[in-house]
Design the sequence.
């Protein structure tokens, strides 16, 4: 059965203090790992798709990387506006089509 | 901008009183999804439509129904809401059901409260 585990559950950083969020997954045939950002009271906002081990994607202060067992979301010199919950999801390993299994998320708080 | 729009943003209903949530999209995507998200939890898929084909998740209660009258609109009907159904309901779309690596695009959700 597909499993996605995110750690830590919550992370407090000072502005400018770089860190990484972890997403560990178990799926026999990865067909896409997705990172989303979710602000309070809003829907998830798509950030990145990663396709294969070794791949990296960047957007502003965020960089997502992928290995065969986990993905990292690196945040460089974060700002208070980066505070949000970051969700990781993998496409389910079955023949049901584009269904996602989400992790529980990491709630990031960046203090000025 | 093309987007996924959910109405209303906040909905209050009484215990047992039917309620309908709506979702529209201007992305012209074939697939539409409904998720339930409770506080500090991951989104949980309830069902999806691929064009007009409806697919229910195995553990979605019978209390939850959905309609998709056309490509652009999809509705979530909760026939007899219970206190445990209070949650954020998210609508999402994707361009294809079978193409790998296609992201889902979410609306901002409807926060449902039950009195």
Sequence:
């Amino acid at each position: 059965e597909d499993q996605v585990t995110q750690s830590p559950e919550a992370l407090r950083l000072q502005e400018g203090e770089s860190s990484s969020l972890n997403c560990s997954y178990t799926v026999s045939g990865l067909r896409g790992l997705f990172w989303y950002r979710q602000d309070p009271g809003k829907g998830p906002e798509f950030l990145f798709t990663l396709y294969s081990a070794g791949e990296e994607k960047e957007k502003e202060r965020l960089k997502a990387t992928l290995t065969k067992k986990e993905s990292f979301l690196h945040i460089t010199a974060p700002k208070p506006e980066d505070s949000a919950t970051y969700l990781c999801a993998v496409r389910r390993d079955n023949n049901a089509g584009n269904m996602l299994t989400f992790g529980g998320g990491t709630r990031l708080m960046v203090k000025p | 901008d093309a987007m996924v729009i959910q109405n209303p943003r906040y909905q209050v209903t009484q215990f047992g009183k039917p309620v309908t949530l709506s979702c529209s999209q201007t992305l012209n995507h074939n697939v539409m999804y409904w998720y339930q998200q409770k506080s500090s939890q991951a989104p949980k898929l309830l069902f999806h439509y691929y064009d007009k084909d409806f697919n229910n998740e195995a553990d979605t209660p019978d209390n939850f129904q959905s309609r998709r009258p056309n490509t652009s609109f999809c509705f979530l009907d909760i026939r007899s809401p219970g206190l445990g159904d209070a949650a954020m309901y998210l609508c999402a779309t994707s361009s294809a059901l079978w193409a790998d690596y296609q992201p889902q695009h979410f609306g901002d959700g409807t926060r449902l409260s039950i009195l």
